[in-house]
Amino acid sequence: NPSVEKKKAAAVDPYGFERSEDFDYESYEELMSEYLVVLTRRSIKWSKLLKGKSKVQKNVKYLNRTFPDNIQFRKTSNPCLQKALYNVLVAYGHHNSAVGYCQGMNFIAGYLLIITKDEEKSFWLMDALLSRILPDYYSPAMLGLKTDQDVLGELVKIKIPGVWQTMVDHNVMWTLVVSRWFICLYIDILPVETVLRIWDCLFYEGSKILFRVALTLIHHNQTLIQQAQSLPDVCQTFKQITHGPFVDECHTFMQKIFTEPGSLPMATLTKLRVTCQSRIIAEES
Hints:
It is a single chain. With 285 residues, this protein is an all-alpha fold. 65% of the residues lie in helices and 0% in strands. The chain has 15 helices and no strands. One of its GO terms (molecular function) is GTPase activator activity.
């Protein structure tokens, strides 16, 4: 029955993720009708930018159990991405034995496979992420990950002191509320389209983008966070702020992350990373 098949297709997004029963199709269609224009414009820009080039220069102005709810990872799917996911993770474990397999890597490899549909491309993109862009995020000690969570805390202290004070008052460690943001690179935290745009920037300009996203979410919702009355309240609010129109409208959100947090020089991040990492090593030794 064509109408039944059409209804089934509508229940799954273009990336294979099943939509919830209360999915707002009307708002989605309205958003996508505007966003498709943006996507087309950006696609033309990228085509011009990459024409005849094997890599993009940094000074170019432009710029953009795994997935149980994704039909492409089910055994009934043809092809099923589970086998490809397994191959990429095993290959990476052999390639980088110091890291092997670590929590969060399955989501990253899975997302790369959804987009590239190619095991080798996914492998090398993951290697670029884990070895160069995010060193020590997925090592056994996870020193890079722990460091950046603390760096975010220091940035919030400087830029959004009211939220920092709320965290102190309720004795909330940053790892409680942002560890999944960093380890999953916002997969399963923010909407798919928004995550893909964040990843464009992550590959292009590096890990600084992770802080811009986190600071924007916190800054935009600072009043709500400061209303929290307890540690569980804070944790619940941090989950709440990753949903809703602000993050759904990905093009507007991506513009916000470059304005709302204000200036974020790499020199500041580097200095804070050195300080925070030294502190963590001293505490763990």
